[in-house]
Amino acid sequence: MPTATLQPLLHPVDLADLRPTQMTVGLQEVERKRHEWVGREEQDKPEFLGRHMIPVVTGPKGRRWLIDHHHLARALHDEGVTQVLVSVVADLSHLKSDAFLTFMDNRNWLHPFDDEGERRDYDAIPHHIAKLRDDPYRSLAGALRRAGGYAKVDTPYAEFLWADFLRRKIKRSKVTTDIEGAIGKALNLARSPDASHLPGWAGSSA
Q1: Looking at residue 42, what DSSP letter applies?
Q2: Domain boundaries 136-194, CATH class
Q3: pTM confidence score
Q4: Considering Cα of 127, then 132, then 137, then 138, what sign does the dihedral take?
Q5: What tens digit of pLDDT does each residue of 139-197 get?
Q6: 7-134 belongs to CATH 3.90.1530.10
Q7: What residues does each domain of the chain span?
Q8: What is the pLDDT of residue 203?
Q9: Which candidate, 39, 71, 189, 197, has a CA 20 to 30 Å from the CA of 169?
Q10: How many CB atoms lie within 10 A of CB 134?
């Protein structure tokens, strides 16, 4: 049965073996995390990895599925890091594949949406973090949060909810060619009543 207690594995696991639970990342977010990693002193890197264990669910055949920190995992992979520490959130290895994916989806531990915000079949989720596609609106959502557009919350895939909201309001060409202008527009949108249903909304209901 799933456990609510995080169980760290104190020995490293291969980063390449971790299975994604989403289809996309914001590659600008990945680049930001890569830059932060490169800027760390070598002696600080092991401590950083110890503080940022990757939360996973153990699925059929003992495979470990990422349920958060996809951007960090992708950044570390792109920087040549081969092993990380993980925290096991739940052990569902006794389930068959279809039951496992259904449970993960209903638990909101799965996000099978593509870079256009369209829901896809489970088998469209890549098996390797290197295959995650770019969704520029996910990068915009991350930049918006850092700019104070909304608060960080524990809601699963909150940034993707904001990304989908922004996808419907701001042209993709603006996001990809004028990110600063897109952030400015996103800040105005984020404070409007239209965004009041989103997690971490920081606007005014007055």
Answers
A1: G
A2: mainly alpha
A3: 0.91
A4: positive
A5: 999 999 999 999 999 888 999 999 999 999 999 999 999 999 999 999 999 999 999 99
A6: yes
A7: 7-134, 136-194
A8: 83
A9: 71
A10: 16
